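Section 3.1: Structural characterization of target chains.
Under the original work plan, the team committed to producing a structural model for every single-chain target entering the pipeline before any wet-lab resources were allocated. The record below documents one such target. The sequence was received from the expression subgroup and is listed exactly as submitted; it comprises 494 residues.
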Amino acid sequence: MSGLEQGVQGEPFAELSRFRGVFYDCLTGRRDGLFELTDAVLCSDGPVRTFVDLALAPEHRRGHGALYGALNRGRVDVDRLRSQLAGLPLPRAADGRLVLAVDVSPWLRPDAQTCPDRSFCHTYDRGDAKHQMILGRPYSFVVALETGRTSWTAILDTVRLEPGADLAAVTTAQLRDAVGRLIASGQRKEGDPEVLVVMDAGYDTPRIAHLLGDLPVQVLGRLRSDRVMRRPAPSRAEFAAANPAGGRPPKHGGEFVFGDPATWGKEQAVTTTATRRYGTAVAGAWDRLHPRLTRRAAWLEHDGPLPVIEDTVIRPAVEKLPSGGVNRPVWLWWSRTGASTEDVDRCWQAFLRRFDLEHTFRVLKQTLGRTRPRLRDSAAADRWTWLVIAAHTQLRLARPLVADLRHPWERPTEPNKLTPARVRRGFRNLHTKAPSPARAPKPTRPGPGRPPGSKNQRPAARHEAGGVLATGEAYARPTHHKKGTKPRRTATES
């Protein structure tokens, strides 16, 4: 019995079939067209180059006009789909905790001048080695990370950022909703380890951690290497001993400058790990550091005194980089204090796993064609994004079911280590066995067209000097004259 036949009879195939049925129920308008469009994304040969080519896939039994009609007029119950994604089996860390990552992926549309909802997206041009701001539609994604080196993530949610939106506020609301759905679906129960959220530079990590303080969430983010933190304020006894004359006790302690090692002091926790690609990795942690907040930007309208957000700063340093590039310092911010050596190792290794999200963005864009359609309506763009997410989720569920259909120049890969692109090659064989709730299109035939002799169509029969209409009446062929000239008068007319 082949691996596919064994998988069809197991629990993974049942989970895939169940999700396909639920996904079909989440399509509340043009559901058959949207469902077959998703199957065309999964089963088409090679990467999705152009959107209209999906109509040529055998799994799409409708015409090319149905592609655009489904995207422009279809409807998706996004809230229900989000709940279903949260209830699927999710990857976990070694200690059983959920590790989430959040990042923004742009859909660049610099030439769409008629789209009113575009905003500037931050991009990085490798050719020019500089940052650029290009008009487009930015989308914020929340995914669940796996352990080890992999290109798989479990997508949980996405939100399109409106022009001028507060990134920290939108991310906080998105994470709050995602964690709430995970708790409601039983993914995180009372007594389980707290959910770890990992994010890269560009986010206001202390503010997000402060806004999520009432949830069982730990926030880990990267900070810029030019930041300055403050140590805890001295106690009243220490302040009185240092200032006999008295005065107002300070709110902040001494400075901790990232670029000045003289201000660091002694680490509270230090770990050393031998790695295969990076050599010896040394991570040091400094406890109870906080940023000095001021009443400007996001804290301008804050009620009451500004909070003191204490945290742990972690600085991992490796011996070498696999690419041979410059080994620049990395500073991480963890929203908890009293870090142990196990916490330090877990934090910096979880931050490395955050880069798996970049592989997911590459698969969504280059293989599944998330940014291929040129859609003017933002609602259609959101609808297409959710269809691609549903396709990626089906690939993740089909991961243990398909066989490795590798090219002759590719190396063999273990079944549990197939990439999303290689799983997609074998999904068509699995699609023939998976149930498809979409109904076949109704048979149609071309219309009769305009009747002969109508005003907008030439008569059916035509002769040199005239013709015969459908009623049997003869008609004279009209004479056309050149513009600017008068017709010649005949003898009878004169």
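The mean pLDDT is 86.
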